[in-house]
Amino acid sequence: MKAMILKKLVNLKENKAPLELVELPVPIPREHEILLKVSACGVCHTELDEIEGRTAPSQLPVVLGHQVVGRVEAVGGKVSAIKTGDRMGVAWIFSACGVCKFCLAGHENLCPAFEATGRDVNGGYAQYMTVSEHFAYFIPATFSDVQAAPLLCAGAIGYRSVRLTGLKDGQRLGLTGFGASGHLVLKMAKHRYPNSDVYVFARSEEERAFALELGAVWAGGTTERAPHKLDSIIDTTPAWEPVIEALANLEAGGRLVINAIRKEGDKSSLLDLDYPAHLWLEKEIKSVANITRSDVNDFLKLAADMPLKPEVQLFALEQANEALIELKAGKIRGVKVLKID
Questions:
Q1: Same domain assignment for residues 12 and 133
Q2: Do 164 and 257 reside in the same domain of the chain?
Q3: What is the CATH number of the domain that holds 204?
Q4: Domains contained in the chain, number
Q5: For residue range 285-330, what is the model confidence (pLDDT) as tens digits?
Q6: Same domain (yes/no): 261, 281
Q7: Which pLDDT value is given to residue 109?
Q8: Residues 282 and 295 both lie in one domain
């Protein structure tokens, strides 16, 4: 099978082709696994963090990709709920131990043995992949393969982020950064909280115009002040500065939710944190760590009911490097998706 693999960690400013197209054996599913013939895989900012070592793969080489959609080609001998031909998806959560205190409480995203698709095991930048039947998701018929792929991470992690804000209908929501997850969160928020205004902070004029096009009531630069204080803000950027700027836009008692696996670059901006301006009056900062299976299942149902369809830009498997470099450069409108023949 064809696959795009990462052989070593690189700086994407210096290396514009971090992945190599290779031929690999088609994997064989174990007893409780399915073999998926991949048709689409979303391209996520977390893959930049993997390539550059901020959340380094546990082994190299590795096949990246954790927003995977395809058809079941074969099943292991003990698979019971999935059959050949079913259309399934795979998300960031590849496995968890199932027995620790976090897993037993439904917080498998915090499991010490958490494994991530495309980081700790081979993912979907390939024609085939295997996954446990317990970590695969039925894709609603509402969505095409390329529409469904971004829902498995950008959408599901956005859903978790909104839930963690504790937002109530009528409260003001801010979004800092307006890429794959941000544009889905805006659509979701407009549906779930019809009386809540959404304010967007984005670095480029194109992103701000896109946000207004999708229903934001205001869009400004990362360092600008919104016309009103905001009850909750979700930060989806890879940088530190937006954290400080978001706190300055937050209402008393408000919550900033940081939806990022890692932050890039210098941490010195945190030294600029001014307690009365940024944290005083019971403001909160909460991080998002991974996702659970229930996040994915609940979000897919919500997305189908809306229906929530992402804006996508298509690339061939062989163009994965091009998609990643555009993402690194901030050339974003919606979600980049690999369409795999």
A1: yes
A2: yes
A3: 3.40.50.720
A4: 2
A5: 999 999 999 999 999 999 999 999 999 999 999 999 999 999 999 8
A6: yes
A7: 97
A8: no
Domain of residue 76 covers 2-153+291-339
Q: Does residue 279 have a pLDDT over 90?
A: no
Tell whether 229 and 130 lie within a shared domain: no
CATH number of the domain to which 102 belongs: 3.90.180.10
Q: Supply 92's token pair.
A: 């960031």
**Rounded Cα distance, 114 and 98, in Å:** 10
For tokens 């950027």, the residue is 237
* One domain, residues 165 and 131: no
